[in-house]
TrEMBL record, chain A:
A GO biological-process term: aerobic respiration
Protein name (database record): NADH-quinone oxidoreductase subunit H
Organism: Falsiroseomonas stagni DSM 19981
Leading EC class: translocase
Topology relative to the membrane: Multi-pass membrane protein
Record InterPro entries: NADH_UbQ_OxRdtase_su1/FPO (IPR001694), NADH_UbQ_OxRdtase_su1_CS (IPR018086)
TrEMBL record, chain B:
Enzyme Commission number, as recorded: 7.1.1.-
Protein family membership: Belongs to the complex I subunit 6 family.
UniProt-annotated stretches for the region Disordered: 202-228
Keyword Protein transport: no
TM spans (from-to): 6-24, 31-50, 56-78, 90-115, 146-167
Function: NDH-1 shuttles electrons from NADH, via FMN and iron-sulfur (Fe-S) centers, to quinones in the respiratory chain. Couples the redox reaction to proton translocation (for every two electrons transferred, four hydrogen ions are translocated across the cytoplasmic membrane), and thus conserves the redox energy in a proton gradient.
Reaction(s) catalysed (UniProt annotation): a quinone + NADH + 5 H(+)(in) = a quinol + NAD(+) + 4 H(+)(out)
Biased composition (Basic residues): 218-228
Its membrane topology: Multi-pass membrane protein
Name assigned to this protein: NADH-quinone oxidoreductase subunit J
Enzyme class: translocase
PANTHER family, A to Z: NADH-UBIQUINONE OXIDOREDUCTASE CHAIN 6 (PTHR33269)
Length: 338, 228
């Protein structure tokens, strides 16, 4: 067995097995995230949410998936056929691809690479392509407007997100995600870097096109925005991709600010619970806040969204980056870089 | 063996997509092939062990520059038949220029040889036991920090220049001053509303609507055999 795992075929088989062990629970998580979102929204709006299919509506996601599969895939005439079909695949694939470097526990990552955080940032900056290609290939005004909005929005918020990541990296001294979590064993970064956490969270909302920044979809003025022409499985892929991206962003926030798999304090009752459970709990907390925000805030106007990104977040995160660097230098807290 | 195979696959796709950038008829497809070419270049960087450069290539070029490129090209209104019109007329001139360039390239490559100790001649070989992210960081931020800052300043001047050239402060354009709006006294009223207040009455701010008058009892006079 050991000898087999050392051969190229063995390495491939092991990697596929690891990927399955991560992706299958992830997809089930995505399915139940849609259910949880509808339940939480229902509770916040004093109604019940899905409660018909299965006990507490627990089988609702599977009923929805089945319904999607049965529908006809419609490709509009005048659409760029290959690109039209490629766009949802890109969105879904990128949402899955990023999970390759996420450490669920100490040493539990499929690929524990040196530049993990840059890899995540690169993958999340590619998410815009699925949307922009979908909008262009649909040959529809609504879809195209949605795509243009989303391209501008995602590029804008990425800049301040980059500064937030750089601030965290200054405190860690490594680009490796496992190292970032290990550096928080004394104190989670949410405490010293709280303003950066807030900016990161809001940027994550904008990056995943969630309310109150869901202008690319904007059902009141753009019908459904970039995916207005999509139906059946291609629509389902967009939907899955969006929710998987939400989970991914929550995982990123958990790793950067909430101490990843670490318990709140390294004392008895907390250390009994294994690391992955803490990791999942923290992700669930972030996801709950995503839904909470959706139930609470009205949608931003487009120019206000741009103003918030460029004129508020960008200068603020830049100044905070300089302050952090100065503080680390003055107090001699800079991490030792090998 | 696997690394070599991967190299040839990525290199072949890179060259093929670079050719497609030039030859495809739809400019949007050209940009998409350009993005594919960037990706394969990043993969080649990875194979060479330069993971930092690979990720930066993807983040900067694919994630930002190419998006803006695509953005502009998608909004261009290009008439494709007009583009291809003068092909026959300009083909000889274009062909001649291409031939000259190709000949020059051949001359260059024919006389190009690697020095025997090429590894040692590099200006900054990666030090032992340091990954390339740190090696690049040392060169940029420790050895050549002033040059690096200077180039950053030049870029900043260029950016400000571009903004100054394109910004026109039109006097009659309407702008929203959010600070002024928020600072205006009495612009925001925070009011504690009793929980469940909206259920019994219409409108929390407005006075409750008066209860509808109960319809008068129709008096029956007992005509007998009336319409029901």
């Amino acid at each position: 067995m050991e000898a087999f795992l050392a051969t190229p075929v063995g390495i491939l088989a092991l990697t596929v097995a690891k990927a399955m062990a991560l992706l299958v629970p992830l997809l089930i998580g995505v399915a139940y995230l849609t259910w949880a979102e509808r339940k939480i929204l229902g509770a916040m709006q004093m109604r019940r949410g899905p409660n018909v299919v299965g006990p507490f509506g627990l089988l609702q996601p599977f009923a929805d998936a089945l319904k999607m599969l049965m529908k006809e895939t419609i490709i509009p005439s005048g659409a760029s056929r290959a690109l039209f079909l490629m766009a949802p695949m890109i969105t879904f694939m990128l949402a899955m691809l990023a999970w390759a470097v996420i450490p669920v526990n100490d040493g539990w990552a499929i690929a524990d690479i040196n530049v993990g955080i840059l890899y995540l940032f690169a993958i999340s900056s590619l998410g815009v392509y699925g949307i922009i290609i979908a909008g262009w290939a649909s040959n529809s005004k609504y879809a195209f407007l949605g795509a243009l909005r989303s391209a501008a929005q995602m590029v804008s918020y990425e800049v301040s997100m980059g500064f937030v990541i750089v601030t965290v990296l200054l405190c860690v001294g490594s680009l490796n995600l496992t190292e970032i979590v290990r550096a928080q064993s004394t104190v989670w970064f949410i405490i010293p870097l709280f303003p950066m956490f807030v900016i990161m969270f809001i940027s994550a909302l904008a990056e995943t096109n969630r309310a109150p920044f869901d202008l690319p979809e904007g059902e009141s003025e753009l019908v459904a925005g970039f995916f207005v022409e999509y139906s059946s499985m291609s629509f389902a892929l967009f939907f899955l991709g969006e929710y998987a991206n939400m989970i991914l962003m929550s995982a990123l926030i958990t790793i950067l600010f909430l101490g990843g798999w670490l318990p709140p304090m390294a004392i008895e009752p907390f250390t009994w619970i294994p690391g992955p459970v803490w990791f999942i709990l923290k992700i669930c907390f972030c996801l709950f806040v995503f839904v909470w925000v959706r139930a609470t805030f009205p949608r931003y106007r487009y120019d206000q969204l741009m103003r918030l990104g460029w004129k508020v977040f960008l200068p603020f995160s830049l100044v905070w980056l300089v302050i952090t660097a100065a503080a680390l230098k003055l107090f001699g807290w800079l991490p030792a870089v090998g | 063996m696997i690394a070599a195979a991967a190299f040839y696959i990525f290199a072949a796709v890179l060259i093929a997509s670079a050719v497609m950038v030039v030859t495809s008829r739809n400019p949007v497809h050209s940009v998409l092939f350009l993005i594919l070419a960037f990706f394969n270049a990043a993969a080649l960087f990875l194979l060479a062990g330069a993971e930092f450069l690979a990720m930066i290539l993807v983040i900067v070029y694919v994630g930002a520059v190419a998006v803006l490129f695509l953005f502009v090209v998608m909004m261009l209104d290009v008439d494709f038949s007009a583009l291809r019109e003068g092909f026959q007329r300009y083909a000889p001139v274009g062909g001649a220029v291409g031939l000259v360039l190709f000949a020059e390239l051949v001359f260059v490559f024919a006389t190009w040889r690697f020095a025997d100790d090429v590894g040692g001649l590099r200006l900054n070989p990666t030090p032992e036991g340091v990954d390339n992210t740190r090696a690049i960081g040392r060169i940029l931020y420790t050895d050549h920090v002033w040059l690096f800052q200077l180039s950053g300043l030049i870029l900043l001047v260029a950016m400000i220049g571009a903004i100054v050239l394109t910004l026109r402060g039109r006097p009659n354009s309407k702008r929203q001053d959010i600070a002024a709006q928020v600072a205006r006294s009495g612009s925001v009223n925070l009011r504690q509303v009793r929980s469940g207040a909206g259920l019994g009455e219409i409108g929390i701010e407005r006075p409750p609507v008066a209860a509808p008058e109960t319809p008068k009892k129709v008096e029956h006079h007992g005509h007998g055999g009336g319409h029901h």
